């Protein structure tokens, strides 16, 4: 939604169509995944007479492959969202299980610094490795923003070629 609204290359009708298509694809894929996952869980439980933790992992792997295996912008966003949540969850689990010690202070500021340092380094020196929508957003924020005409640049869009 933000990317579609932020960049004015599309008409309002095209923006609304793009948002509707992305919303439909997102919800359809989630519905297909839930149906596949729950169906595979039920099948495994029925075949083995009980449900075991591995069933969840296997059903989700198969569902992920079938439903989210196509590398497109919608699936990519969902996978990146999940990956970030997984890393946080695994970090908490590692502390909970005693694999790593409980931090003495909140590690989030260090994580924020490393994430921002890495993404801006990639943007400046290895831009092509970043997802296209991230590249476009960062170009808008860190390059296009170097040219200002008036307050409308901030409120509307700052990529005008005319000078006042």
Automatic annotation (TrEMBL):
<dbReference type="InterPro" id="IPR019531">
    <property type="entry name" value="Pmp4"/>
</dbReference>
<dbReference type="GO" id="GO:0005778">
    <property type="term" value="C:peroxisomal membrane"/>
</dbReference>
<dbReference type="Pfam" id="PF02466">
    <property type="entry name" value="Tim17"/>
</dbReference>
<protein>
    <submittedName>
        <fullName>PXMP4 protein</fullName>
    </submittedName>
</protein>
């Amino acid at each position: 939604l933000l990317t579609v609204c932020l960049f004015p290359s599309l008409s309002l009708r095209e923006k609304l169509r793009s948002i509707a298509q992305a919303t439909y694809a997102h919800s359809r894929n989630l519905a297909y995944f839930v149906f596949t996952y729950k169906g595979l869980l039920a099948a495994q439980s029925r075949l083995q007479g009980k449900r075991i933790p591995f069933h969840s992992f296997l059903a989700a792997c198969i569902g992920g492959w079938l439903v989210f295996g196509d590398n497109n912008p919608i699936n990519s966003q969902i996978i990146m969202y999940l990956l970030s949540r997984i890393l946080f969850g695994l970090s908490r689990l590692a502390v909970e299980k005693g694999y790593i010690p409980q931090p003495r202070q909140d590690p989030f500021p260090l994580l924020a610094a490393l994430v921002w340092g890495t993404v801006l380094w990639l943007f400046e020196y290895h831009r092509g490795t970043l997802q296209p929508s991230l590249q476009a957003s960062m170009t808008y924020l860190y390059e296009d923003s170097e040219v200002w005409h008036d307050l409308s640049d901030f409120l509307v869009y700052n990529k005008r070629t005319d000078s006042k």
